[in-house]
Specification:
Number of strands: 0
Radius of gyration: 45 Å
Mean pLDDT: 80
Structural class: mainly alpha
Helix content: 55-70%
Strand content: under 5%
Distance between the termini: 120 Å
């Protein structure tokens, strides 16, 4: 029997031992490779699932944000309309407020109001 890619011959008893070692190493390597593929596959599926869940949560938050923005715009328009001059002048009558008449101003004399 000869080594792979070698011209050197080995005795028959050593060739059987060499073949068993090579076969066992290959079998062990295949088992490790199989386990690695399974672990990587599970981690890929878990990562993809996590991304999908975050995507759905993000779309829900965007929908909620657009609803809140629309409601905010409506409330701003309502606040502007309620604070307009026409609305305030109409509400003065309903609140039974008295209109301002003549205003008397106090003359401070030389301009100083308080002294040290």
């Amino acid at each position: 029997m000869r080594y792979l890619n070698s011209e050197k011959e080995i005795p028959q008893s050593q060739s059987a031992l060499w073949f068993k070692k090579k076969f066992l190493n290959l079998k062990f390597f295949n088992k490790i490779l199989f386990i690695l593929i399974i672990v990587l596959g599970i981690s890929y599926i878990a990562g993809t699932n996590d991304l999908a869940i975050k995507g759905y949560a993000l779309s829900d938050l965007r929908k909620q944000q657009s609803k809140v923005a629309a409601e905010n715009k409506k409330l701003e328009l309502k606040a502007m309309s309620l604070s307009s001059y026409n609305v305030l002048s109409e509400r003065i009558g309903s609140l039974k407020m008295v209109a301002v008449g003549n205003i008397d101003y106090i003359d401070g004399g030389d301009g100083s109001v308080a002294k040290k």
